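Risk register update: the risk of archive-format incompatibility is retired. Evidence:
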Amino acid sequence: MTLPPTAPTTALMPVQPRVHDDRACELGEGALWHPGRQGLFWFDILANRLLCRDADGPRAWEFDRHVSAAGWIDRDSLLIASETDLFRLDLQSGRQTRLVALEPDNPATRSNDGRADPQGGFWIGTMGKGGESGAGALYRWYRGELRCLRQGMTVPNAICFAPAGDLAYYADTRQRRIWRQPLDRAGWPLGEAAVFLDFGPEGPKPDGAVTDAEGCLWNAQWGSGRVARYSPEGVFLGALALPTSHVSCPAFGGPGLDRLFVTTARQKLSAAQLAAEPAAGCTFMLEGVGPGRAEPAVQL
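Archived output:
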């Protein structure tokens, strides 16, 4: 739906964020709550780094290429999306096993937002490293097959799914739109995508997103310092304020899935903004939000 000029956009929910992890990321992204480990994973894309905080405390893994999104396979392994491939990471040994190449012959692009779908597939977007217009694409990996779903995208984002698995959502941040895509029983696109939210040229820039148990979509909005909640019909329901401008990706977690974790970024903030926003790049947690949904496992 296109938002009318009178649509409410600023109603704030009375929930106070606190810093969950103070390791400041240049570009924090890809928040994932691992239900088996009861811990949060996320990325600093520009630092080629995966971070984690769980019962074992803070940890990090370094890579030789950009990494940006993950899905959990089992307790000790993740599917990781990098600029050149999807690979399985053994969290204990650090061993990497390539599953499929991802635009390996195009050094101008990298992976961006991604998430597992309820059928056990994994969706991932690519984009130009310099944000070049139309350089990106949207893919789905499922049971050994990587299929391109949409080309000509600039900054694919907001990949998430309705609880029943019959709808996918995704955005192009540059276009300030979120689409809704019907899915068949195996999780492949069924028919054409329709615009779910059109924020207009002066509206919020949609970044990462997740759905809750009621099917509402929570969208981190780059440059707006907030995560906004929308009903399945596209009605704005309220927003959570963060103490820094560039919020990037939410994830529900905690024992009751009633905590919202949010990654942020320092990227493209001026010296004056960084001085005014000392927590920029930290990862935040807001309690009593939701009810959320557990992330499904990726099926190999």
